[in-house]
UniProtKB/TrEMBL annotation:
Residues 75-184 form the PH domain. Residues 1-30 are annotated as: Disordered. PROSITE patterns: PH_DOMAIN (PS50003). Keywords: Membrane, Transmembrane, Transmembrane helix. InterPro entries: PH-like_dom_sf, PH_domain, PX_dom, PX_dom_sf. Gene3D superfamilies: Phox-like domain, Pleckstrin-homology domain (PH domain)/Phosphotyrosine-binding domain (PTB). The chain crosses the membrane at residues 211-233. It comes from the Eukaryota. This is PLD1 Phospholipase. GO terms for molecular function: phosphatidylinositol binding. The lineage of its organism: Eukaryota, Metazoa, Chordata, Craniata, Vertebrata.
Length: 261
């Protein structure tokens, strides 16, 4: 602890912010707005302190995660704990069991809503377990009749159905409305089909360019060169350029480059 105290940056706040000690019942109505401002300032100062900001209890109470403070990931919607059903599909041959108590395995996960995808993480380690992309088949269903789960929420896209279990119907409705409104506002370009059946809209004036050309043609061999310029673009070689995945790894980026070369 001595080493930690000595290593704290001077610019970081070291003391816990304080709240007024006056009871709420004694506060006049005209002072409610100032009390709300005091509470906002208190929570803001708490989140500026890494020790409290990274504490799981603080994140759960405020409804944020480590990804909430990474601005390069784009706009962020609601977050929170959910119960996720394994696989997203009912287990064949066990339909006799009811209400998901014996047929399904449920796991507690932290769900994050972004502009073009949803993802859930393991609450203990923060490791990302799965990413559900927004596409033209993106749809949300709610209720026991549609999800076969009490207070259930089902999120579909082209490749998967994600089944969630909420604490109440109001909780499920809160998730459904929050996800739907945020995706319709920030991710509407992914909800329709685009050129060549792509899941993403055409982006003009981007810094990423790709050329495919054959510079050498001789009688014995033909050389094909794939030349890609990536400026400020983080792109995984394992990303699938054509979705949904129905032909194995054929349309994975590294496999495409290898095939073209």
């Amino acid at each position: 602890h001595t080493v930690r105290r000595q290593s704290i940056k001077r610019g970081e706040p070291r003391q816990m912010p304080s709240l007024p000690h006056t009871a709420e019942s004694t506060v006049r109505e005209e002072h409610f707005s100032s009390r709300r401002k005091q509470l906002e300032d208190y929570l803001t100062n708490i989140l500026k302190m890494p020790m409290y900001r990274n504490y799981h209890g603080t994140m759960e109470f405020v409804g944020v995660s480590q990804l909430s403070f990474i601005h390069d990931l784009g706009p962020k919607g609601i977050e929170g704990f959910i119960m996720k059903r394994s696989g997203g599909h009912r287990i064949p041959g066990l339909n006799c069991c009811g209400q998901g108590r014996m047929c399904y395995r449920w796991s507690k996960r932290w769900l994050v809503v972004k502009d073009s995808f949803l993802m859930y993480m393991k609450p203990d380690s923060g490791a990302i377990s799965f990413v559900l992309l927004v596409d033209k088949e993106f749809n949300i269903k709610i209720g026991q009749k549609e999800t076969e789960t009490k207070y259930g929420l089902q999120i579909d896209n082209l490749s998967r159905s994600l089944i969630l279990k909420c604490n109440s119907y109001r909780h499920a409705q809160w998730w459904r409305q929050g996800i739907d409104e945020f995706i319709r506002k920030h991710g509407k370009n992914f909800l329709t089909e685009h050129r060549f059946g792509s899941y993403a809209a055409v982006q003009e004036n981007t810094l990423a360019k790709c050329w495919l050309f054959r510079p050498v043609l001789c009688s014995q061999a033909t050389s094909a060169v794939v030349f890609i310029h990536l400026y400020f673009l983080r792109l995984s070689p394992e990303i699938f350029m054509k979705r949904p995945v129905v032909e194995g790894n054929r349309w994975r980026l590294d496999c495409i480059l290898k095939r073209k070369a």
